[in-house]
Specification:
The protein is mainly α and 253 residues long. 69% of the residues lie in helices and 0% in strands. It folds into 2 domains: 109 residues, no CATH class; 123 residues, Serine Threonine Protein Phosphatase 5, Tetratricopeptide repeat, CATH 1.25.40. It starts with 6 loop residues before the first helix and ends with a helix.
Length: 253
């Protein structure tokens, strides 16, 4: 099935896109299945956010081919999440990887957008089941494009926390604490996590320190987190503040 989307299509009324207008970049899927996936994508807040950002980028640059590569990468990556057929899923992820790599060859694109593409390239490789060492290297390489952004490193920290490799997690949470805490980048439109810079780094680091029995550092980091919550309660939900209060009691006991 030939893609029906072009840069011009997306520049005009992107929120009015129909499932038929989205590209289907795999031969291992029926038209009905493809349209069903497209309909789900158009309901996603994150996909609409991407389209909005993409459209803004379209207004700034005339490089249509790079724009299509970026769009193709994100579309294939997200569509793969809905694929029940393993062959279709892998085919879409391979296409996503190829599109991101093509986009990254354009050194005239803004650093924030290239950071996003490199970060997503790492996530795409992880979804393909590639060796974690390759995934990690790809994610950390995103800082070559924008060393003020930390979301790709955040994923590395989360990986080591979730896999209970706390020693390695400590290395990266320590780096993130030093490099990103309190330093929200000015350019953060492309799926930036403001809370990561404001306080989530401390949350991750406190948790990791607790698991490796660095009790004093865990306590110091928690109190730093607590101080931020008192100065800037607007950074937190009521549930998060309640959780911090409960943890505070355990540190005092």
């Amino acid at each position: 099935m030939e893609p029906l989307v072009t840069a011009d299509t997306l520049s005009d009324g992107i929120v009015q896109l129909t499932p038929e207008q989205l590209p289907v970049l795999t031969n291992f899927m029926t038209r009905a299945d493809a349209l069903a996936i497209n309909a789900k994508l158009l309901e996603e807040t994150s996909f609409q956010q991407f389209l909005t950002l993409w459209n803004q980028l379209h207004c700034k640059t005339a490089n249509q081919q790079s724009l299509i590569s970026l769009y193709g990468g994100y579309y294939c990556q997200q569509a793969a999440e809905y694929c029940e057929n393993g062959i279709s899923r892998q085919d879409l992820l391979i296409h996503a990887q190829d599109h991101y790599m093509t986009f990254l060859e354009d050194d005239k694109m803004e650093k924030e957008v290239r950071y996003f593409a490199q970060w997503q390239l790492g996530l795409t490789k992880e979804l393909q089941g590639k060796d974690w060492g390759e995934v990690e290297e790809t994610l950390l390489s995103a800082s070559n494009y924008h060393n003020g952004r930390g979301e790709a490193m955040r994923h590395v920290i989360q990986y080591y926390r979730n896999s209970k490799q706390y020693g390695l997690g400590y290395i990266y949470s320590s780096i993130a604490k030093e490099q990103y805490l309190g330093k929200v980048p000015e350019e953060i439109g492309w799926f930036g996590d403001v809370l990561f810079y404001q306080w989530k780094i401390l949350y991750y680091h406190t948790s990791i320190c607790g698991h490796i029995k660095f009790s004093k550092e865990a306590e110091d980091t928690f109190y730093e987190l607590w101080r931020i919550s008192q100065i800037h309660p607007e950074y937190f939900t009521s549930e998060q503040l309640q959780s911090l209060f409960q943890n505070m009691k355990s540190y005092k006991s």
